[in-house]
Each structure stands twice: as structure tokens, then as C-alpha cells.
Automatic annotation (TrEMBL):
It comes from Paramormyrops kingsleyae. SUPFAM superfamilies: ALDH-like. GO terms for biological process: L-valine catabolic process; thymine catabolic process. Residues 36-499 form the Aldehyde dehydrogenase domain. One of its GO terms (molecular function) is methylmalonate-semialdehyde dehydrogenase (acylating, NAD) activity. Its EC number is 1.2.1.27. Belongs to the aldehyde dehydrogenase family. It catalyses: (S)-2-methyl-3-oxopropanoate + NAD(+) + CoA + H2O = propanoyl-CoA + hydrogencarbonate + NADH + H(+); 2-methyl-3-oxopropanoate + NAD(+) + CoA + H2O = propanoyl-CoA + hydrogencarbonate + NADH + H(+); 3-oxopropanoate + NAD(+) + CoA + H2O = hydrogencarbonate + acetyl-CoA + NADH + H(+); (R)-2-methyl-3-oxopropanoate + NAD(+) + CoA + H2O = propanoyl-CoA + hydrogencarbonate + NADH + H(+). This is Methylmalonate-semialdehyde/malonate-semialdehyde dehydrogenase [acylating], mitochondrial.
């Protein structure tokens, strides 16, 4: 494999992180600055979701390999945390440039492993890149506080300091953005990092690791292991790991939150969602319907912030046929094909699950206004495709409403008033994101104040905050106290040391022991 030796604006080879020693390339581990072949006997296949061809294999790292990775993080911590903050900043300044110059290569890899369209994959990289760019403000973000003269000759000040070894566990749906929410923020603060990418899409993380190394990150500051449950348990249990960031399903996230917390670690856990778009009859119809369709079916609905549920209020219920027409016009195709709007789902199991949730809606009395289950994609007959699907007359008791579908399925409910819509949203356990579509400021204000959801869009369908803010999903969509990226991300990966110091002039020296509390 060609290495990037200079920090110049070089293109990174597309297949980096894999070594081909049989007909199927294998994903390496990244331990102590080296991309190494695992000695494991357990491997998982990686598939192209558009064809279901096996395009690679990923190891389940052995216990020895995982220990070597965490030991490497521990050894590197001392010198890395002691490296000047300006030197760390420089590495991330170079890193953002390398990512920017290799967006296309990263995106191709994402499309190949994850299935999303190339344009959407570039967006995946871009949103992660923005987090890396924000880490370059570390010199402001790491500032402590001072208060001089808290009493005579005495000052108090705080340092914001790294924790030690931190770890991240990531999902399949954003192979670039979500790892980039984690290790750059942790590392620029002076932590070292152990990453376990999704075993279904590991290639992008490997390429990102290579670019970080080429930006000057010392050996051991980032280590990558692969695997499933054993790797996750290892991270939850290893005493050297001080904090865990998790993004993925509720099943895994709640488990990791509990197991990590019991072991005394900080855990932040971003999980599943059921995001509602509330459409008021005064909304700009054309704009709203296009936004709704884009946010429901983009990335085949495999976004935690997908608007998977619409609530049409009053007269807006008559817009349903137009909504269906727009969804019908989307082109389902392999992500690397020109003009593709909706790519495949990640796996045949995901496809079966989504199709059975559609059927459950039909069985429970919803109206199937658009059925994507029989979609045929020429040349990609073996892919995991489901076309845009719309279920109308959905009620809150139906399984298609209570479960996160994570596919290109929009469920549509009706409400007579804004209050009724707010009540519906607030009764749903998830609190990741929501949007209201209206031209009335008072309606928008009432909604944003009364809705109990962590991220609200007003005429913005997917209100994912930029990295100067934080990703603030709430209720069942999040466990932890401190959110990802932005100020909160920097808080998560740092601890505060508070120093109180007294420098007395000689003539003020104590004449006897001070045995009472100072007042
Ligand atoms: P997932 O939970 O299956 O996998 C995420 C990670 O957890 C992977 O690295 C996987 O190896 C590990 N894992 C899986 N099952 C596990 C288990 N039982 N015990 C321990 N570890 C386990 O999630 P996914 O299918 O890759 O991603 C889709 C989910 O992620 C959706 O629910 C989506 O809403 C959610 N998500 C949330 C956000 C957010 O910010 N809230 C962002 C993206 C995705």
C-alpha cells in the first residue's frame, strides 16, 4: 500500500487499511502506529449493500490484540498530554486539510461499504470535517477560569485537563462523521483514543486513521480494534479506559451506558429516534413537501435524524397525495450510479425487518399509500433495496409508529391542532429531533418552547447543530450528562483541576497554626 509520506495535499489511496492476501481483502488493526493483520481465527464479511458481494473481511480482534491497543494508548498518554497545545492544534490543522483533499476517496469507500449515494457520502465526510475544523479552536476551548483575590493574597484558577485513555464505539450509518465526532475532540484535548468502528463499515475509519498519522499524530495516540460484543465488553471493562462515547441503537447503547458506568467510566450514549415533522396548514407547501420527502427518504431513511414521522395538522392533511407523488419520483439505485436518490439498506436482514414493519402497519389498519417493497433496480437485483414507502392513517399504538424503522418509510399521522401535535410528539419516548413547518412566528415559538425534544428545526427538516453547538438529543435518544462535540464535547473529554494559591508577603506570615475553618 502506498503511504502518504509528506503532509502535502496528497490524495490517499482508495483501498487503504485493507491488505489483499487472498481473493478478499482484509481490514487491519491499527495498533501503536502500525496497520497490522489480526491473528484471529474469527472474521466477519463486509458486503456491498447494492450487490451483496463480499468486498472484504474484518477481524474480531483477539484479547491480546485489544490489550496491546489499550496499552499503546496508555503509554502514549503521558507524552501526548504533555505536548504543547499549539503542537496538537497544528496536527489537527493539517488533518482537516488532508480530509478536505480526500473527501471523494472517503466518500467512495463509504458508498461501497454503506450504500448511501456518493453525494450523501460526501456530506457524511463534510459534517465530520466540520468537527475537525472546530477542534482547531482548542486554544480557546481549553481555557480555564481564574478569580484573583478570593481573600487576601489568595487566587483561584482552574485548568481543563485530559482524562487519559478514551474509547469510541460507532454505528454503520455515518462511517466518517461519527468517528470524527469522537477521536479528534478527545485527542486535541490531550487524551489518547481507542476506536471500535462498526464492523459493517470499517474501511473509512482506517483511512481516517492513516490521514491522522500522516498529519503527525504520534504512534499510540489513536488505536483501532475491530469486533462486536467481545470488543465492546473489553472497552466497558478495561480499567485504563476513562470515558466511552457510543452512537448506535438503544439496545447496545443502554447496555454500554450501564456496563461502562458501573465500571466508573464517563459514558455518553447517542441512540435511536423517531423524529416528527409537524406540518401546519400555513406552511409554504412546495418547500415543506420537498423538505419532508428529502428528510424521510434521504440515505434510505438510515439517519438518526431522518424525519420518519409526519403529523399533518388540519388542512395540511389534504397535501398527502402531493407528498406521495414527490416520494414516488425519487430514483432508487446503487449509490454510485448517477442520479441515485435512494440507495440500498445496509443488509438483507435490515431489508426484511423494514418490510415486516411496513406489513405490520398494513395489518394494524394503516393505509399503504406508497409501497417500496417490490422495487426492482436493474443490474442490482441482489441489493437490499426498499423504495420510498408511505403509510397513512397511522395511530400511536401501531408498531410502525412505536418502533424506529430505520428505512425509507414515512408514517403519517393526523392532528386537528398544534396542541394535539405537540402532545403526540411529547408522548413518544424518543427526543432526538423534530421540525415544524409554518409561516407563523407565534406557532413556531410555541412549538419550540413546548416540545420536549432536544433538537428542533423551524422550517429546517434535519436540525443537526454545527460543531460550535452540540448534538443535543434527549430522553430515550440519549444517556449521559454531556453531549457530543461543541462545548459539551470538550467538557466530556476533560476534567477540571482547581488550584487555590496563596503568596503572602513575609510580614504576613502566620504566627500560630490555623485550626478553624477560614471565614
Ligand atoms: P448498533 O447498535 O447495532 O451498532 C453500533 C455499535 O454497537 C457497533 O459498533 C456494534 O458493533 C455495537 N453493537 C451492536 N450491537 C451490540 C450489542 N448488542 N451489544 C454491544 N454492542 C453492540 O447500531 P447500528 O445499527 O450500527 O446503527 C443504527 C442505530 O444507530 C439506529 O438506532 C440509529 O438511530 C442510531 N444512531 C443514532 C445517532 C444519534 O446521534 N442519536 C446517530 C447515528 C445512528
Amino acid at each position: 500500500t502506498t503511504l502518504i509520506r509528506s503532509l502535502s495535499r496528497t490524495k490517499v489511496p482508495f483501498q487503504f487499511g485493507r491488505m489483499c492476501y487472498s481473493s478478499v481483502p482484509t481490514t487491519k488493526l491499527f495498533i501503536d502506529g502500525k496497520f497490522i493483520e489480526s491473528k484471529t481465527s474469527e472474521w466477519l464479511d463486509i458486503h456491498n449493500p447494492a450487490t451483496n458481494e463480499v468486498i472484504g473481511r474484518v477481524p474480531k480482534a483477539t484479547q491480546e490484540e485489544m490489550l496491546a491497543a489499550v496499552d499503546s494508548c496508555s503509554r502514549a498518554f503521558h507524552s501526548w498530554s504533555d505536548t504543547s497545545i499549539l503542537a496538537r492544534q497544528q496536527i489537527f490543522l493539517r488533518y482537516q486539510l488532508l480530509i478536505k483533499d480526500n473527501i471523494r476517496e472517503l466518500a467512495k469507500l463509504i458508498t461501497q461499504e454503506q450504500g448511501k449515494t456518493l453525494a450523501d457520502a460526501e456530506g457524511d465526510v463534510f459534517r465530520g470535517l466540520q468537527v475537525v475544523e472546530h477542534t482547531c479552536s482548542i486554544t480557546s476551548l481549553m481555557l480555564g477560569e481564574t478569580l484573583p483575590s478570593i481573600t487576601k493574597d489568595m487566587d483561584t484558577y482552574t485548568y481543563r485537563l485530559p482524562l487519559g485513555v478514551c474509547a469510541g464505539i460507532t454505528p454503520f450509518n455515518f462511517p466518517a462523521m461519527i468517528p470524527l465526532w469522537m477521536f479528534p475532540v478527545a485527542m486535541v484535548c490531550g487524551n489518547t483514543y481507542l476506536l471500535k468502528p462498526s464492523e459493517r463499515v470499517p474501511g473509512c475509519a482506517m483511512l481516517l486513521a492513516k490521514m491522522l498519522q500522516d498529519s503527525g499524530a504520534p504512534d499510540g495516540t489513536l488505536n483501532i480494534i475491530h469486533g462486536q460484543h467481545a470488543a465492546v465488553n473489553f472497552i466497558c471493562d478495561h480499567p485504563a479506559i476513562r470515558a466511552i462515547s457510543f452512537v448506535g441503537s438503544n439496545r447496545a447503547g443502554e447496555y454500554i451506558y450501564e456496563r461502562g458506568s458501573i465500571n466508573g467510566k464517563r459514558v455518553q450514549s447517542n441512540m435511536g429516534a423517531k423524529n416528527h415533522g409537524v406540518v401546519m396548514p400555513d406552511a409554504n407547501k412546495e418547500n415543506t413537501l420537498n423538505q419532508l420527502v428529502g428528510a424521510a427518504f434521504g440515505a434510505a431513511g438510515q439517519r438518526c435524524m431522518a424525519l420518519s414521522t409526519a403529523i399533518l395538522v388540519g388542512e395540511a392533511q389534504s397535501w398527502l397525495p402531493d407528498l406521495v407523488q414527490r416520494a414516488k419520483a425519487l430514483r432508487v439505485n446503487a449509490g454510485d450510479q448517477p442520479g441515485a436518490d435512494v440507495g440500498p439498506l445496509i443488509s438483507p436482514e435490515a431489508r426484511t425487518r423494514v418490510e415486516s414493519l411496513i406489513q405490520s402497519g398494513v395489518d394494524e389498519g394503516a393505509s399503504l399509500l406508497l409501497d417500496g417493497r417490490k422495487v426492482q433496480v436493474k443490474g442490482y437485483e441482489k441489493g437490499n433495496f426498499v423504495g420510498p414507502t408511505i403509510l397513512g392513517n397511522v395511530t400511536p399504538q401501531m408498531k410502525c409508529y412505536t418502533e424506529e424503522i430505520f428505512g425509507p418509510v414515512l408514517v403519517v399521522l393526523q392532528a386537528d391542532s398544534l396542541d394535539e401535535a405537540i402532545d403526540l410528539v411529547n408522548k413518544n419516548p424518543y427526543g432526538n429531533g423534530t421540525a415544524i413547518f409554518t409561516t407563523n412566528g407565534a406557532t413556531a415559538r410555541k412549538y419550540t418552547h413546548e416540545v420536549d425534544v432536544g433538537q428542533v428545526g423551524v422550517n429546517v427538516p434535519i436540525p443537526v447543530p454545527l460543531p460550535m453547538f452540540s448534538f443535543t438529543g434527549s430522553r430515550a435518544s440519549f444517556r449521559g450528562d454531556t453531549n457530543f462535540y461543541g462545548k459539551q464535547g470538550f467538557q466530556f473529554y476533560t476534567q477540571i483541576k482547581t488550584v487555590t494559591s496563596q503568596w503572602k508577603a513575609e510580614d504576613a506570615t502566620l504566627k500560630s497554626p490555623a485550626v478553624t475553618m477560614p471565614t
